[in-house]
Design goal:
four-stranded mixed beta sheet, 25% helix, Set1-like, SET_dom, S-adenosyl-L-methionine
């Protein structure tokens, strides 16, 4: 018995229209080269031109923007420019490097030009009390750690970056520094941030005044500036 097969129709776009609704149910058949080229060209065009909202709906970008909007909204309410600058520093950190310094041991250097009154880096470490700081200082001396990486925030809090910190602990002292340290409050937490005092060029060393309290046992200063006080304390 022979059954008359219905004539295959073509759609308006030139592609073959399947009567059964599924190409696999109609068996094997050849496709003209012209139709095949049309299909390939359409698929390539679709691959090269993704939907316009693909990048907008990227979850990583959306999460970053929402986090930035959240911080900006919380900072703007206080009308404090320091908080806005800290937000910018968090999302776009300054390019810095540490290497050997002519002042003392290691130092921190700028890898890009830094304008005046800009946040350079946050002094990161462990927040400890004065009692713990005294115990650790003695222990560090017994371990042979000569350099001190403790930074006082206020009367009760000290940031210890000796074994848990970032590049900021490599900043050397200078009696004529190009930066200064400032305590700011972010989300009810005090932080120490290093600001640029003047324009800083590429490969210029980052320095600030340690402002150690005056003591009988003096620590010699090796900054080499014209107005060097001779000692850190």
């Amino acid at each position: 018995t022979s059954f008359s097969t219905p004539k295959k129709k073509k759609r308006d776009d030139g592609m073959r229209e399947h009567v059964t609704g599924c190409a696999r149910s109609e068996g094997y058949y050849k496709i003209d080269k012209k139709d095949k080229l049309k299909y390939l060209n359409n698929s390539r065009a679709f691959a090269e031109e993704p939907p316009a909202d693909t990048q907008v709906r990227n979850p990583l970008l959306s999460a970053g923007r929402s986090e930035q909007r959240r911080l900006l909204s919380s900072f703007t309410g206080s009308c404090d420019s320091d908080l806005l600058k800290f937000n910018q520093l968090k999302f776009r950190k300054k390019k810095l490097k540490f290497c050997k310094s002519h002042i003392h041991d290691w130092g921190l250097f700028a890898m890009e030009p830094i304008a005046a009154d800009e946040m350079v880096i946050e002094y990161v470490g462990q927040n400890i009390r004065q009692v713990i700081a005294d115990m650790r200082e003695k222990r560090y001396e017994d371990e042979g750690i000569g350099s001190s990486y403790m930074f006082r925030v206020d009367h009760d809090t000290i940031i210890d970056a000796t074994k848990c910190g970032n590049f900021a602990r490599f900043i050397n002292h200078s009696c004529n520094p190009n930066c200064y340290a400032k305590v700011i409050t972010v989300e009810s937490q005090k932080k120490i941030v290093i600001y640029s005092k003047q324009h800083i060029n590429v490969n210029e060393e980052i320095t600030y005044d340690y402002k150690f309290p005056i003591e009988d046992v003096k620590i010699p200063c090796l900054c080499g500036s014209e107005n060097c006080r001779g000692t850190l304390n």
